[in-house]
Design brief:
mainly alpha, 7 helices, elongated
Length: 134
Amino acid sequence: MRTATVHELKKELQNLSANELVELCLSLTKYKKDNKEFLTYLLFDAHNKQQFTDDVKQEIDKQFSELNPQINLYYAKKSLRKILRLIGRYTKYLNDKAISAELHIYFCNKLKNSGIPFQKSEQLIKLYNNQLKK
């Protein structure tokens, strides 16, 4: 099956009625959580990026609060990668490099202040340095 280009999709979507567009959007959200999250962002949060950024920071804080600083570094790495996937997903929605940089800096500061001895693990040092580069 061939995937249509963006131009073809746009042309076809312009021919649909408002009700058909609503049904099409709702059917997209049924199949993938990312589609539902992105549509939620576009409808409710796109007009206020600062509030959305603050909400993402609160989610990062929540994830870090669930981390135990005495945890095995293997499990800490898994949890940190989970947080980074969350940041990556939300920065993709925002499509703003300044806010993306702000979130990555926020992550680095939280990691430094978390008490996790990430300096003992080569993988976590690389993870931290990659976030600094971003």
